[in-house]
Structure formats: structure tokens, C-alpha cells
Amino acid sequence: MEEFQPDKFIFSLVAIAVFSLVAFLHLRQDESDTQYIFTAANQSEWNLGGNKVTPIGVEHLDVPSNAMGIDVGVNVYTPPGYNASNTSQRYPVIYFLHGAAGNEYNYFGYTSFDQSNPSSILNSENIVKLIQNGEVPPAIVVFPNGKRGSAYKDSGDDKPETFIITELIPFIDANYNTIANRSGRSVEGFSMGGGGAAYFGFKYPQLFCTFIGYSPGPYSHVTQALTSNASDIVSYDMKFRFTHGGTNDLGGIKTFVDTTLPNTINSYNASASNDLYAFHTDTPTGYQIIDGTGHNFELQLNKEHPSGKSFAKYHAEYHHACFAEASGNPTPTITTTQTPTPTSTSTPTPTITTTPTSTPSPTNTNTPTSTPTPTNTNTPTGTPTPTNTATPTSTPTGGTGGISSTPTPSSSPTGSSTPTPSATVTSGNTIPVACGSMDTSNDGKVDIFDFVGFRDLYLIFNGPDSLSEYRCQDIVEPVCGRKDHNQDKLINILDFARFVEKYQAPTC
């Protein structure tokens, strides 16, 4: 009789338990895009909370979503010299959308940021460093949690599109000194977030001046938005850019950028009375192959553009050129004063409840001559009326919600369109960093969501057949290297079982 081996027995039990747990969570398939998501909007997936150290100039918000009935985690960067009480000084806003396994803190993981030093983010190429050092004009940068694996498209109880478009944008415009129209608003993202940025840019050209899709998720709803809103994209003269990381980027992404998008645009141009664009490499409406970077956002940001600038700086200037053109004003003067404010580790910012005192209505000078008539009455058509407004500690700011003078496509997301500007602002507390690569969701715990994180990452690009396993040699090392815990050159359920077996304590 074969000798009883306790290690193999325990491992088998763990694997069976994990399989059962995943089945219990009722993964289901989105019929339109072959995505798998959980059936309920889970608070912990939408908000990692404010108990992490954030980079210089960044604060964490808990932004209420009426559409989902939860508070969504959002990080907001304000530039040096920002004064909430000075409503005459207004800033453009850049929204950054994270990737498939990310969250509101995801961007900082692609920089030199070290939680022990909030100023460490200044040591690599990224939007915060460029603004903080005065290398590009000042802007507010918003990092929302869009939920892992959502593809930024509403599905069931999860409504990332409704939240960002009809709740978060009006909230930011009501609570910060923003240029509250498309002439002062852009969106960009990486991987799933790159696909999300393209989706929002194509579907809502009345809301954004530019978008940039770094190695974008190859989603059908992106090309659908492109063709269904092509006339509005032309009317608003939407500016956009895509990238991919060359030979080592994911195959589906390279095909999407090199072939699918150009073919979609060319097909539209052949059948329409007005041309959308010619889609060529390194043009204002085109794409750039950042060869040698693969599916790695940090490498893409730091790679030198042919102009001699980093891609991070090249694209930041690309946003600002559109801001200046759309507003009819020259490019803003670059701020050179640095005012580092280290994050406190003991005094979180208290919640303040006030009411905005002014609601200026910026003129949108880039409105097309033909204005479509919106059919969705759930999208705001005037100045949103906050029902419970909160601002950071100084005099509150006004805003138009950024939607007042622009058409809204009939396919806008449903849900509450009136923002509820009441958020808890927290910053400055740390959590232990001990889980290493096991904590794939970066939330300070090792649990089922860490398996979900790497499951979503490869599932997004490889379809439902990859749910059982994924071969590591088919994907770049930073992904497989830290997720193949079973060391069999496959990513599958056994890897999660292995790290559960290794990490008996659920908290790092």
C-alpha cells in the first residue's frame, strides 16, 4: 500500500476548497463581451480605503455612488499652489483608469513611489512627477477605482460607466476648481483602463478633449462606440492616441491597435459621407509602437519618445495642447514652485459638509454646429444640483458638472445623474507590507480576491477558455513571474491553492 503523504493530502483539500469557493461566487458571463464578473457590487472590490500612504499631493476620497449604493474609492492629485478657496484659478482634469487587476492606487505601483517616502514618486517619469516639478502645466489628476475586470462597462449591479460618467465627473467639478467642460477634461488608461479610456472617449466626445489608450484592452464595445458615434467624434474633433509595447506585448492588444482599429475606421470612411480619420502611426489620431516595453506601463511611461521626451511627458503635453486649442487660450504658464507636503501618518483629514456657493458656467468654445438631441432623460442637461455637498476644508468651489452645454448620446448609461458630493477624505496611514507577490490585489490581505486579480488579468485578454489555466510562456514575465506559485509554467486554480497553503494567516 502506498504510504500516506500528508502534504499531498492537505494540498488536495485546499485545491478542492478553492474550487468550491469560486463556484459559490457564481461567476457569470457578460453576453456582449465574454467577460466574467461577480454578480454583486462588492464594497471591498470598489474601495481599498484611505489607510495607505499616498504620494505627495494625493488624497483618498470615498465617493458615494447612488447607482450602486456603495462608496467608491478615488484618489485625487492637486498640483502645487492649488487653493480651494481661489475659485478664479481653475484647472484641467485628467482621469486615469487602471488595469484589470487594479484599483484606485494602481497607478502609483508603476512609478518609483515608496510608501516610506511620499516624495519618492518624483524619481520616475509619471504625471504626478511632471506636474509637481513644473515640467508640464498644472492639472488635477483623478484615479478612480473601476473594479477589477469590469472593462469599464456597466453589467448587472456593477456600474463603472454610470459611476464615472454621471456621478464622479460632476462630483469632481462640484468640489474642485476645475475647468468643467470638455476643453479642460481628458482620460487615459493602461490595459483594461486603456480600453476604458477609448470607450469613454469614443462614446462621450462631448465630455473629453483627448484620450490615450496605453496597450488598450481589445473590447468590442470600444469599436462599437467608435462606429456608432463617429459623426459626433468628427464634429467635436476628438483627439486620441493608442500605444502598444511592441513584440512582447499581448497578441490580442497588438492586433487590436495595428489592425482592428484601422480597419474599423477605414470601413466607416468607405461608407460614410464624412471621413473619421486616417489612422496612422505617430499622428494626432493614431498610435505609437513603444517597442521593447511589452505589456509594462512603467516601461512605456519612461521610454523615450522620438521627440526626445519621455512618453509620459509627450502625452501630458498632448492633453494640454488640446486644452489650449479647445479653450481658445494659450497653453497655461508652467508652475515652477514645488511645495512638497509629506503625508501625515497620524491625523486623517476629517469629513466636512458644506454647500457650494457659486456655480459658474464655463463657455465651451468647441461645440459643433450641429447638436444632437439627447433622448436619455437620466443624463443631466443642466447644472447638476448637489443634494449633500462636501468639499475639502476650505471655501467650497462651484462647477457645472461638465455636461450642461453638450449633447449626450442616446446610449448613455442609466442610473442617477445627480451627484451626491459627500465624501470622506482620508490620507496618511500605513499598513504592513509583508505579503509580497501573494497579495496580488494590493489590499493588505491574502484572500479569494488575489486569485480573482490574476484570473481577471489573463481572462480579459484571452477569453473564457483561459479560465482553467494559462501558459506562462505566452505572456510577459512581470505577470506570470509572480503568479505561477505552483511553478509549473501554468496559471490556474492550483496557484491560488499554493499561496493559500503558504500563507495561513489571511492578513499580511
Automatic annotation (TrEMBL):
Residues covered by region (Disordered): 326-428
Residue ranges of the TM segments: 9-27
InterPro entries xref list: AB_hydrolase_fold (IPR029058), EF_Hand_1_Ca_BS (IPR018247), Esterase-like (IPR000801), Mycobacterial_A85_antigen (IPR050583)
Pfam families named among the record's database cross-references: Esterase
GO molecular function per UniProt: acyltransferase activity, transferring groups other than amino-acyl groups
Keywords: Membrane, Transmembrane, Transmembrane helix
Keyword field contains Membrane: yes
PANTHER family per record: DIACYLGLYCEROL ACYLTRANSFERASE_MYCOLYLTRANSFERASE AG85A, ENTEROCHELIN ESTERASE-RELATED
Protein name: Dockerin domain-containing protein
